[in-house]
Specification:
The complex is a heterodimer of chains A (541) and B (194). Chain A is an alpha/beta fold and 541 residues long. Chain A has three domains: 220 residues, Thiamin diphosphate (ThDP)-binding fold, Pyr/PP domains (Rossmann fold, 3-Layer(aba) Sandwich); 103 residues, Rossmann fold (3-Layer(aba) Sandwich), CATH 3.40.50.920; 167 residues, Thiamin diphosphate (ThDP)-binding fold, Pyr/PP domains (Rossmann fold). Chain A is 42% helix and 15% strand. Chain A has a six-stranded mixed β-sheet with strand order 2-3-4-6-5-11, with helices on both faces. In chain A, strands 8-10-9-12-13 form a five-stranded mixed β-sheet, sandwiched between helices. Chain A is globular, with a radius of gyration of 26 Å. Chain A starts with a strand and ends with a helix. The model of chain A has no long low-confidence stretch (mean pLDDT 96). Chain B is α/β, with parallel strands linked by helices and 194 residues long. Chain B has one domain: Pyruvate-ferredoxin oxidoreductase, PFOR, domain III (Pyruvate-ferredoxin Oxidoreductase, domain 3, 3-Layer(aba) Sandwich), CATH 3.40.920.10. Helices cover 41% and strands 22% of the residues of chain B. Chain B has seven helices and six strands. Chain B is globular and about 45 Å long. Classes of the chains: A alpha/beta (541), B alpha/beta (194). Chains A and B meet through β7, α11 and α14 of A and α1, β2, α2, β5 and α3 of B. β7 of chain A pairs antiparallel with β2 of chain B.
Amino acid sequence: MQKSLLLGVEAIAQGAIDGGMSGVYAYPGTPSTEITEYIQHSKQAKELNIHSDWAANEKTAMESALGMSYAGKRAMVCMKHVGLNVAADCFMNAAITGANGGMLIVVADDPSMHSSQNEQDSRVYGKFAMMPVLEPSNQQEAYDMARFGFELSEAFEIPVLMRITTRLAHSRAGVARFAEVMVQNELKLPEDKVQFVLLPAIARKRYKKLLSNQEKFEAASEDSAYNTYSDAADKSMGIIACGLGYNYLMENYPDGDCPYPVVKISQYPIPRTMIKKITGECGKVLVLEEGYPVIEEILKGYLEKEAVIGRLDGTLSRDGELTPDMVGRALGFKIEESLEIPDIVAARPPALCVGCSHIDVYKALNEVIAEYGEGRVFADIGCYTLGALPPFNAINSCVDMGASITMAKGAADAGLIPSVAVIGDSTFTHSGMTGLLDAVNERTPITVIISDNESISMTGGQKSSAKGKLEAICEGLGVEKEHIHVLLPVPKKHDEIKEIFRKEFEYKGVSVIIPRRVCVQKNVRDQKIKKASMAKTAAKA
Amino acid sequence: MKTDMVIAGVGGQGILSIAAALGSAALDNDLYMKQAETHGMSQRGGDVQSFMRISDKPIYSDLIPKGGADIILSVEPMEALRYLPYLKKGGYVVTNSTPFINITDYPEQEKLEATIKALPNYVLIDADRIAKEEVGSARAFNFVMLGAASPFIDVPFEYLEEGIRKIFARKGEEVVDMNIKALHAGRKFSQENR
């Protein structure tokens, strides 16, 4: 059968569509965005009437997915690793309510922080919630595991976490699809009418059930086709390789002739029998994990009685993603000497696009801030974070979605007046609104600049939940109408923009300034689509 | 049959179309392939790369090991040098000579060319000029570059033509022909100037 050429993220999307999913819920975030985009553009998904609209944030996405699971249907929710922090309240409790229809939670981690603020390992969250975790090592497994995840979720009545990392997410390979597409579940309410009612008395029972189910989850890991033990003659060392770690191991033995016993893990909880066997038989154990040393730490123990090597003892780097040559060195291979990067090669960091509206905002802001003294601009997550780099050097913080407004508030409470928040339109509706309410309720003297480019641009121009709603939201939250300004960020308005900044910095209450101009990249894409559709219409006529 | 290639450029230059044509060529001929690419933040004018691996045997790693690439194909001269640690001994650097300057400390053109010309195996090609003057479309420069790398890619040349045909089929005969012409122009230059 002809294989499809799919990115890891696309493989998950196609696997979920073919696996009987009724809806996907997500907020964009690299490297997870294309899972949902693939479903949005899939003709098959459209014909099957699969829900795929973007959610306002990861928490609302996960709750909606849980609601769909409650109603008996298969639901998937996708996010980047830090998105799981936002959704963690629902996530932890969903392990207690359990699932009705299959629920798959796909979280894409970003070790080496290619496009992220940290490199947290979502497998730790899986253990925290005591949920089964799947960690595909290649695109085919990613495809297969989407359906398997739904099945596992329904068999054990619990959401299942699928953890992937950047390299799998954004790497393409041929994927063989199932011969048949599964039919979606019928609407079917949970048999236990109070399963999802986490009153303490019920939650205690549900929690005990989750605890007693751990044995079953572990047994499933032992029997899983995704976890394997391959024996070999040289017992001086055993290797435990998780997810992508397995690929980097085998890359060093292209003919499949690894001389050491190997446990490959792609399903958690950890398959205890396999681990006992390999640690019992081998002199020492090398653990290859993409992310935190999760298994390594458990095996090694606080008292370090076991001979375990990996990220903790320096055999592998403690941070960053694994690479085939790093694993090769850990296996004792000499890496062939290669050329160095010549000194003349300059760094080429990402930058704001030519003509970007954020540039006009920062140019005006920098000049006005200079009048007050620097160190008072709290920014957020999005393209405008690039304002931290030269030539702007315009911002003093970027921490988490929405933190600009609340950090500005805290700093103003401490006496840093004026304090300024810079946040994007979508980030504002993701997590900025509640912080603005805090400020309004206390009349905190802050100025919030919602730099509105009418799209979620950093991740590729997805639809912003904020579109057409910002003034109404701010007014509704109680910002005074005369302190809400909408303006056009273009060079010829430079002085006008500065004037408004100055005026509102002086105001001893909450001001919101909304520079609004559509993202230049989105504009180009929209024009192309418009042109194509006009050509189509013309051809028909 | 096995080729590991780093495809390099700057976000927005469209290196992924090169990878797409190669990927399609590999898959349609029952070869194994893996192709890792850059998404997200770096796409905003930063350096981007794609690791392209094609083989008649299963491929494990999505990343090419350091010292493992047969070819560095770069659509921008400075970016070619950024990936030298990945080049295998005896491997080829095939790079466009037209710089993409979006930073203030971009190296001097002469020094840059001298550094490339000091490499043991290289093809330095003005793909922008060839695309414009010989092919008749500036946008085809990516496939001039693929053509220039083709003598070193261990995949039959016809497969590459098929790959281009397939990925541009939707856009019509004219676009297909233009890009195939670009492929041939690049290949010819490379064969004459390696």
